[in-house]
Amino acid sequence: EVHLLESGGGLVQPGGSLRLSCSASGFTFSDFAMVWVRQAPGKGLEWVSALSGTGFSSYYADSVKGRFAISRDNSNSTLFLQMSNLGVDDTAVYYCARDTSDFPSEYFQHWGQGTLVTVSS
Amino acid sequence: IMMTQSPATLSVSPGDRATLSCRASQDIGTNLAWYQQKPGQVPRLLIYGASTRATGFPARFSGSGSGTDFTLTISSLQSEDFAFYYCQQYDHWWTFGPGTKVDIK
Asked: Considering only CB atoms, which chain A residues are within 8 Å of B96?
């Protein structure tokens, strides 16, 4: 069974940094692209970033480009999202999700439970 | 690619039919997915390829459409179907629609 578990969320001041992790199990991690999707309180879903199975190809939404960095450790089946220069608009639940193949291109069948990031002074 | 959904809220009686619409700002073929999200829960993939039902969802859920206009139909609403529904295009990167809330009339 596919299982994704995010961690690393919390309260951070504007301008601060945070690193999220997503631990995966139940499948061959390196065979699948992974993504981060966020949901601000009471709002809809927003794709944030995607990374190929090899880790060589990464993609970012315009809203986070230059501030967030996605990476992965295939030997430990873990996905990361390094977030810097955080603003109040980055407050959201951050979900990691699995794509359908090794290249980020389609829909997300498996989602983690999410981790809440709150940016506030 | 921008995604719009209508209506924002749909009030339906149990047993009635619900029709949700999703529109893309440009042709996305059938590269469209629908997700169901209940309050406090994780989104669940419901439909992909515009019309293929994901594992675990009953046949009362159906998707249709191609190009720019798509529809999610719930033929006879059950109590467990009251939720938010989001469409998502994956033709060029990924964009979600703002969602439709299906609530009890």
From this structure: 44-47
State yes or no: pLDDT of B104 exceeds 90. no
**Closest CA of chain B from A27, distance in Å:** 17
Task: Judge contact between B66 and B53, C-beta under 8 A.
Answer: no
Which pLDDT tens digit goes with each residue over A27-43? Answer: 999 999 999 999 999 99
CA distance B52 to A13: 43
Q: What pLDDT, on the 0 to 100 scale, is given for residue B66?
A: 98
Distance from CA of A84 to the nearest CA of B (A): 23
| Residue numbers in A near B33 (CB within 8 A) | 106-108
- Chain B residue whose CA is closest to A45: B96
Chain-centre distance for alpha carbon B104 = 17
Residues forming a β-bridge with A80: A21, A71
